[in-house]
Amino acid sequence: MAHHPNALLGSLFITILIACGAKLYASAKTFTIVNECKETIWPGITHSENFSGSGFTLKQGQSTVYTAPADWNGRIWARTGCSFDQNGNGKCQTGSCGTTINCTGPGSPPASIAEFTLGQEIDYYDVSLVDGFNLPVIVKPTNNGKGNCSTAGCDRDLRQSCPSELAAKAEGKVIACRSACNVFNTDEYCCRGTFGNPQTCLPTNYSRSFKQACPAAYSFAYDDRTSIITCSGADFIVTFCASR
């Protein structure tokens, strides 16, 4: 029996829609951002190249889902001690990324930052303390991803053990732990100039203390071998103030 041309076209159209839908679904990554802290936080999300992004309020116990393209490169972190008016204008004590709730910058140190470089075949991710520490944060892949796919991050509150010379305070309380680069601004601590390569940029006493407390986090600029994790086919959960 001959098939009607319209029926064949209809079947082809449906097949194309299904294929495109599957490709679109596969090309998106979801990040579930969870606040298990005993305080409200204001997560910031920016693209690594232009730093335009988004931001929102997340109260204790709340979570939200952020969807990004499969080739997205960016960072997620928490701002703390923020005050925004009804128009979304304001400021934060740590992690500030502009003067609005939606981020227009990369996030000012000190801040604990989850970093992602996504690709069609493999994703790279880490939690960086290179810019200092403001809250514990861990990253877990989901959906049975393939590869290393281990948990990255720092579940210790480094504010409690922060050296006095690195402590950032507000109203007498330690609200963050700054990096040695941020405090002393030397080539050695900032891994620049003659210290700007893996052979000369070495761990310092400060970065070693961060690494000892948080071995699954990135503690200095060339800490790549132990701190960047790979995974493919996974989405991610980014949790603030959770245990590993």
From TrEMBL:
Biological process terms in GO annotation: defense response
Localization in the cell: Secreted
Entry keyword annotation includes Nucleus: no
Signal sequence bounds: 1-28
Cystine residue pairs: C37-C241, C82-C92, C97-C103, C149-C231, C154-C214, C162-C177, C181-C190, C191-C201
Listed PROSITE patterns: THAUMATIN_2
GO cellular component term of the entry, any: extracellular region
Keywords attached to this entry: Disulfide bond, Secreted, Signal
Family: Belongs to the thaumatin family.
Protein name: Thaumatin-like protein isoform X3
